[in-house]
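We both want to read discrete structure tokens more fluently, so let's practise on a single case. Would you supply a protein for us yourself, any chain you care to pick? Would you write everything just below, so we can both look at the same thing?
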Amino acid sequence: MHTDRSGLVAALDIGGTKIAGALVDDHGRLVVRAQRPTPAREDAATVMGAVAQVLEELARAAEWPRVLAVGIGSAGPVDASRGTVSPVNVPGWRAFPLVAAVRERAGGLPVVLVGDGVAMTAAEHWQGAARGRANALCMVVSTGVGGGLVLNGRLHTGPTGNAGHIGHISVDLDGDPCPCGARGCVERIASGPNIARRALDTGWRPDPGGDRSAAAVAAAARAGDAAARASFERAAQALAAGIAATATLVEIEVAVIGGGVAGAGDVLFAPLRERLRDYATLSFASGVEVLPARLGSDAGLVGAAAAAAQELGLWTPPTAG
């Protein structure tokens, strides 16, 4: 087991829009950064080429010889047991052997893969709103809804790196079909595009030629638009049901919510906390706190490094600055 506090982890945060990379130290600081757009509509080799460019840029940094491992947080599904990824928004990658490809380009360093929701969870537990909590659910509510779990003080990834994927818990048994194949999933109700879709379907009207995003719906809700407010309240209800189910199952202390939709602030959090009282009713679940995430857009990189550090026994326990 390494305890080399001078060591770094090379982190990759891979999504449908961008591939971000950084060298991360044991305080969660991003010492060197690199980024490329994701060629999401191209073939597998072209997408991997962009990842390789990010790695090559990091490897040119003077600090690269201090790198002990590579941590990857990727849009999913991922399969950490096989080292493969099949991101929904990168159709050229289906069961793509990302871990082997990165290991080859990183000089044989150990590589740890987790889903992007798990990476965000690792970051928030290490440096953010879940710091100091032994049991937590962290969620990304954005274009989709993802998440991850901390249990007994450690990141709980599950065998394939997807544990805590709360977006595909069904909270409406006869609800709308979800693209995942199930019905009434949290994501089908609470994601940004679904909040906007429902608001439009029930009478919200954006400014002519205007913004149809969840952020625009949030602004309308703050201004008193009934359909916009109702859509956020429905999303809050779905999130509350999912959080309560998780609290009942594994006894979490806190639910941390990040992602673009969390930027709505009290438009989301006020009804969410209120509805949580309706669902988290048992004594051991009723005390769960709901907090906004703190780390923002760097969470994926910080969390990919933290996940690798935990799995490989680097910086144990991680220190925080």
Observations:
- The chain has nine helices and twelve strands.
